[in-house]
Amino acid sequence: MLTERLNCIINYVNNETVADIGTDHGYVATELIRRGQAKRVIAADVRQGPLNAAIENINKYGMGDVIETRLGSGLSVIKPYESDLAVIAGMGGELIIEIIKADIETARSMELVLQPMNAQYELRLFLIENGFMIEKEDIVCEGNRVYNVMIVKNGHMEKFEKEIYYHIPKYLENNPKFYMLFNKKKREFEKIVKGLKNSNNTDIERLEYYSSLLSEMEEYSI
Ligand SMILES: C[S@@+](CC[C@H](N)C(=O)[O-])C[C@H]1O[C@@H](n2cnc3c(N)ncnc32)[C@H](O)[C@@H]1O
Questions:
Q1: Domain check: are 181 and 218 in the same one?
Q2: Are residue 54 and residue 108 in the same domain, yes or no?
Q3: I need a labelling partner for 168 at 20 to 30 A (CA). Which of 19, 66, 93, 219 fits?
C-alpha cells in the first residue's frame, strides 16, 4: 500500500506527461499510470541502483511502453516543455533548490510538485525570490512525521510579510493538519532557544531570531 505522503503527492497530479525526478523504487511513476493520472512518465534517478529497482517495478506491471527511465541528475534529463509536470519528492530542500537552479528554464516550463524532507524555509524563500509561485501547499502526516507538499509554477509571488511565514505559511492556517506543523515548529524553535540559553557562548543574534519567531507564532489562531 502506498504511504500517505506518496498518496498526497500523487493526488496533485493529473497530466499528460510527468517527470518523476529521484524516482527510486518507481512507486510514483507506476501509481500515476495505474490510476490514469498520467499518460506517460519519465522516471529518472541519478543512481543506477534505484533506477534498476524502478525498472524492475515497471516491468512487473508491464508499463515499459508508457514509463521511460533515464539516468542522470535532476531536470538535466528533461528538455524544456518535454514534460507538463515534475515531481521532486523525498529529497532535502537544499538538493531540490540545486536541482531547480541547475536547469531553471526547464523548471519554469512546467508545473512542479515538491516535497522537501527538510529546509522548507529555504525552499520557500528560494522559490519566491526566483520567480516561482507556490500555488498551493498541503500538509501530510504519517504518525508524528509532518511533510509539506508544494504545488509550484513559474510566476510572481509577493514576498511574505513576516519571517515566520517562511517557516509556517499563513495560508496553511486552515489546513486540518495545521496544528501538527505548528506544534512541530514550536518544539523545534523552543529547543533551539533553550540550547542557546544554556550555552556558555550564546549566539545572541540567533537567540533573538528564534525568540522573535516564537513570539510571532502567537498570532496564529490555534
Ligand atoms: C529518498 S529517495 C525518494 C524517492 C521518491 N521520490 C519518494 O519520494 O519516495 C531519493 C531518490 O533521489 C535520488 N536522487 C538524489 N539526488 C538526485 C539528483 N540530483 N537527481 C535525481 N535523483 C536524485 C536518489 O538516488 C534516491 O533514489
A1: yes
A2: yes
A3: 19
Are 167 and 185 a contacting pair, CB within 8 Å?
Answer: yes
Closest atom, ligand 1, to C-alpha of 9:
8
Q: Which amino acid is at 130?
A: N
Full residue range of the structural domain in which residue 215 is found: 160-222
Q: How far apart are CA 199 and CA 36, in angstroms?
A: 55
What are the residue ranges of helices labelled H in 130-216? 164-167, 178-198, 204-216
Q: What's the CATH number where 63 sits?
A: 3.40.50.150
The residue assigned the cell 533548490 is 97
Question: What's this model's pTM, rounded to 2 decimal places?
Answer: 0.97
Q: How far is CA 28 from the centre of its chain?
A: 14
pLDDT(222) > 90 = no
Q: What is the distance in A from the centroid of ligand 1 to the CA of 84?
A: 20
Categorize the per-residue pLDDT at 202 as very low, low, confident or very high, splitting at 50, 70 and 90: confident
On whether both 145 and 64 belong to a single domain, the answer is yes
